[in-house]
From TrEMBL:
The keyword Hydrolase does not apply. The keyword Phosphoprotein does not apply. PROSITE patterns: PROKAR_LIPOPROTEIN. Residues 45-265 form the Solute-binding protein family 3/N-terminal domain. SUPFAM superfamilies: Periplasmic binding protein-like II (SSF53850). It comes from Mycolicibacterium smegmatis (strain MKD8) (Mycobacterium smegmatis). Keywords: Signal, Transport. GO terms for biological process: amino acid transport. The lineage of its organism: Bacteria, Bacillati, Actinomycetota, Actinomycetes, Mycobacteriales. This is Glutamate binding protein. It holds the Pfam family SBP_bac_3. Coiled coil: none annotated. SMART domains: PBPb (SM00062).
């Protein structure tokens, strides 16, 4: 009787172990098989939602080719996966729906990682940071933010820089314009001592004004982070993208891209 009982217990234990092993194997295989990471590795094709008309992040040139700050990131990501990249044009409004409907594997289109946005889309670690910078004439004596006291600083009306000037630089003299072009002209003509604009806008100013201007060597004001966006629920894909960005942001390629499109080195904030 005791032998039969021991045999029954042993059989039950063996059956339980097999069931548990089967469940574990299924749990591990399921997410891997269903992950976008697996799909991209198998198909050797990566579909990326990008801007086509938002310099310096992404534009389509006259030859129909995409180029820009975000495009560099997308190509580097595809290379890391051994995949060909396929670009799909997106807009501010269509970025998240494009993910939800599976039209893109990842969105790389200046997606600021707002808290409310993180409730509907999975956001990676930052691959870039935005902020407000100050531009001055190349021969200006202004060297830092403290030197703005008593100086006339241009900004566009209703913009973040206009608010910053009001709240953080009460000793400066704001000169508000309706368009960035007007601010640039005021700086060039000497009507203002400095100009405050976003990182992306400042990059365009530096590209157009060349050596006539310089950017203050100081941390960006009102910094915000920019991330890749992916569909909720794919942790393996999110893990891979985070690892890619971690390695990419400390690379020479990342620094060259930052300097080419934004006129600055990769910020320490996102390394």
């Amino acid at each position: 009787m005791r032998r039969r009982t021991r045999a029954a217990i042993a059989a039950l234990a063996a059956t339980t172990a097999l069931v548990l092993a089967g469940c574990t194997s299924s749990d591990q295989a399921g997410p891997t098989q269903n992950s976008t990471l697996t799909k991209v590795l198998n198909s050797k094709k990566l579909t990326v939602g990008v801007f086509a008309d938002a310099p310096p992040y992404g534009v389509m040139n006259s030859s129909g080719e995409y180029q820009g700050f975000d495009i560099d990131k997308a190509r580097a990501l595809a290379d890391s996966l051994g995949a060909d990249v396929q670009f799909v044009s997106t807009t501010n409004a269509s970025r998240i729906p494009m993910l939800e409907t599976g039209k893109a594997d990842v969105i790389i289109a200046a997606l600021t990682n707002l808290d409310e946005r993180a409730q509907v889309v999975a956001l990676t670690r930052p691959y870039a940071s935005e902020g407000q910078l100050v531009v001055v004439p190349a021969d200006s004596p202004i060297q830092g933010y403290d030197d703005l006291a008593g100086r006339t600083v241009a900004a566009t009306r209703g913009s973040v820089p206009a608010t910053i000037l009001e709240t953080e630089f009460p000793q400066a003299k704001p000169s508000l314009f309706e368009a960035v072009a007007d601010s640039i002209q005021a700086l060039r003509s000497g009507k203002v001592d400095a100009l405050m604009e976003s990182t992306a806008v400042v990059a365009e100013i530096r590209a157009s004004q060349k050596d006539a201007v310089r950017v203050l060597d100081a941390p960006p004001l009102a910094p915000s982070f920019v991330s890749f966006g992916v569909k909720m629920g794919d942790q393996l894909w999110l893990n891979y993208l985070n690892n890619f960005i971690l390695n990419y942001n400390i690379s020479k390629a990342a620094n060259e891209s930052y300097n080419k499109w934004l006129g600055m080195d990769v910020p320490e904030l996102i390394k």
